[in-house]
Amino acid sequence: MAKSNSNKTGKIQSVDRALTILEVIADSDDGLTLAQIAERMELPKSTVHGLISTLRDHKYVKQAEEDGRYLLGIHLFELGTRLARSWDIRDAAKPAMRWLSKEFGETVHLGCEENGEVLYLDKIAADSLVTIVSDIGARLPMHCSGIGKALLAHKSDAEIRRHIANLGLAPLTGRTITKADELMKELEKVREQGFALDDGEIMEGLRCVGAPIFDADGIVRYAISVSGQVKDLYGKRLERLIIETQKAAKEITYALKKGRVQSK
Amino acid sequence: MAKSNSNKTGKIQSVDRALTILEVIADSDDGLTLAQIAERMELPKSTVHGLISTLRDHKYVKQAEEDGRYLLGIHLFELGTRLARSWDIRDAAKPAMRWLSKEFGETVHLGCEENGEVLYLDKIAADSLVTIVSDIGARLPMHCSGIGKALLAHKSDAEIRRHIANLGLAPLTGRTITKADELMKELEKVREQGFALDDGEIMEGLRCVGAPIFDADGIVRYAISVSGQVKDLYGKRLERLIIETQKAAKEITYALKKGRVQSK
DNA sequence: AAAATAATTCGATATTATCGATTGATTGTT
DNA sequence: AACAATCAATCGATAATATCGAATTATTTT
Fold first, then answer.
1. In the structure, how far is the CA atom of residue B263 from the C1' atom of nucleotide D25, in angstroms?
2. pLDDT tens for residues A64-81?
3. B114 found inside a domain
4. Model pTM greater than 0.85?
5. Does at least one atom of strand D sit less than 7 Å from the CB of B69?
6. Nearest CA of chain A to the CA of B120: how many Å?
7. What is the pLDDT of residues A186-195, one digit of tens each?
8. Does B194 lie in the same domain as B108?
9. What is residue A121's DSSP assignment?
10. For a disulfide at A147, which of A4, A111, B29, B120, Cβ 3.0-4.6 Å?
11. d(Cα A170, Cα A140) in Å, to the nearest integer?
């Protein structure tokens, strides 16, 4: 499965290939040998070798000492964290997220949309032994998560329809909304209520409350969510969680306006 | 200040240049224009443009909407976090770090050596409003930090001497150890004690206790540290912190042995 | 010890990156 | 409002450079 080298603009072939190598390695569980990478990219080994040596010299790739297989390199960690540090939204959101997590003892996420999916930008993990939910930097579908629905709900109907047409509505559990019209209705509700509820739509037994964060222009750019097990989130406690999650999102919206805006 | 293109191995020029562009952008505070990048790399703008467009297509770089200046792209965040997730050490260390942070209400770091410097791999921040200390992914010198001294102390004398010769002993505060012999003595003490104390050597008023973590082969690969203000860390409380930090490091060493070892 | 599979090096070839000049778009100035 | 200046983006001729298959070296397996 080689990435197509669809050259829209004047791309530099070797750079394009080198970056694709990184993606191929990232998609593997535990690194790949040179031969495996060459096979997947449908390129001669020597070509891949030249590219990957250059990546290694810059620490974008490292070789396992045992065998010589290639893994992602430490420099990606450094650049990724440096980028994350530049986002004002994280600082703006941190205090409210901390408070929420501590108050309810649950896991709090901060996310944004990235290419039609939810991307987790930050996370305050609950102390509980099992943290079922996803990690920073992970992606998940928009139509079945608290953050995703909160983000999606504030788009125009046309945009939502387009999103559905492009990405589809994959069922992750039996509760996932898979019909377009049903999702439209649900999102209208989300918009009116001011919060989104994911009730086992992404994973059975997992409940999740999401609320939107507006940037200085009044556009929804981010959302937070609080996730926990259904057995812990119901009735009065759930009601209070909903209220507090919305409050927190509003606080973050405010904090974001105050600081200079350095968008993601 | 262009990076020299010292071609040791058969490097691919365009890839080498593209990666250097990322470094140049990362070194800037708030992104750079094409012209600025071209100037720093001593390359024609059109050359840089081709390379950087390719980086942009892969989301390793993004362009600010306002002006067209170039910033690091979201994909670096995704790759960096994916890499971080693959490190067993983080999972192994997390519980003990959490406990330490909660017990003392201070900030706990996990770090390793990377190219003669301490690289922070993880952090549990104290709830306190001001978090003075560094962030995940940041680097700092080895000779004046708790983690750094713990790591350095368990190398051979020859290696330590070489480290000093290569990197020097820059004084960050008036308390920083800047004489080689003095540092050798200090590290011997660290080795004997089993912990390292940074007493305002990196920043006035900041105290920090570090302890080494051994991998399955008995080599020191990581270290943790607890940092706080001098006014909070002294006397009985400091004594107890030292004991608990060492305990935590031992626990992590043990946890690391149990799991399969996926080194950084 | 031999066979097999890995990464790495080599050198001829023409594909492809490079570079200066030009264009187009945007911002700031008089 | 027109001009000047500055920026990114485009173009096309040129030769420098990435590419590729074959050969080599290193490591592991039988």
1. 28
2. 988 889 999 999 999 999
3. yes
4. yes
5. yes
6. 9
7. 999 999 999 9
8. yes
9. E
10. A111
11. 11
